[in-house]
């Protein structure tokens, strides 16, 4: 059995490692909302300080959209803003050369005000081949947790 790599993004002063762990409600397979929430493990690093989080903060559709967004950014394609229902993680395109990764709520480091969505902590990562790899790694994880219950 091959190991599916974690998604990893790194900047000058920080990094983020993400792994999709499981469906939040594995027993619910036919509801377009509850069937598709994923529990995500993350490990953040900012300015020499590390923390971990585990939270049902992304849906299957959002994971697919994030993989697509990272791939497009890595290839210099035009992208629109990406938002998630739960604002724990945020990815922003900064100009044409950087992506800002920021954290809030359950994903925020314990030393910040995790409820201050206007003053998130985060790091900037330069746009390059590593974004394409992060997108591919996230897509590989996404294949293990496909969208469920959308036939209704």
**Class by SSE composition:** alpha+beta
- Name the CATH class: Mainly Beta
The largest β sheet comes out as: 4 strands, antiparallel
Q: Please give the radius of gyration in angstroms.
A: 15 Å
Q: What is the level-2 CATH architecture name?
A: Roll
Question: What fraction of residues sit in β-strands?
Answer: 25-35%
Total E-strand runs: 7
Order of helices and strands: EEEEHEEEH
- The portion of residues assigned to helices is 10-25%
- Total of domains: 1
Average pLDDT figure: 93
The geometry reads as globular
How many angstroms does the end-to-end distance come to? 34 Å
| Poorly predicted tracts of residues | none
Quick overview of this protein structure:
The chain has 152 residues and is α+β, with helices and mostly antiparallel strands.
Describe what this molecule looks like in 3D.
This protein is 20% helix and 35% strand. The mean pLDDT is 93. The protein has a single domain (7-144), classed as Transcriptional Co-activator pc4, Chain A (Roll), CATH 2.30.31. Strand 5 and strand 6 form a beta hairpin. The chain is α+β, with helices and mostly antiparallel strands. It has helices at 60-74, 129-144; strands at 7-10, 14-23, 37-46, 49-59, 89-94, 98-103, 121-126. The protein contains two helices and seven strands. The longest helix has 16 residues, at 129-144. The protein has a four-stranded antiparallel β-sheet. Helix 1 runs antiparallel to helix 2. The chain starts with 6 loop residues before the first strand and ends in an 8-residue tail after the last helix.
């Amino acid at each position: 059995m091959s190991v599916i790599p974690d998604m990893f993004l790194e900047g000058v002063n920080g990094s983020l490692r993400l792994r999709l762990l499981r469906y939040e409600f594995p027993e619910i397979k036919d509801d377009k909302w509850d069937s598709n929430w994923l529990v995500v493990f993350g490990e953040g690093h900012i300015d020499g300080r590390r923390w971990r989080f585990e939270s049902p903060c992304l849906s299957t559709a959002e994971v697919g959209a994030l993989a697509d967004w990272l791939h497009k950014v890595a290839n210099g394609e035009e992208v629109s803003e990406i938002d998630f229902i739960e604002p724990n993680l945020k990815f922003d395109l900064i100009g044409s050369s950087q992506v800002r990764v920021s954290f809030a709520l359950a994903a925020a480091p314990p030393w910040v005000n995790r409820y201050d969505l206007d003053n998130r902590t985060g790091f900037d990562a330069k746009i390059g081949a590593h974004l394409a790899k992060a997108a591919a790694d996230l897509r590989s994880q996404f294949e293990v947790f496909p969208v469920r219950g959308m036939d209704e």
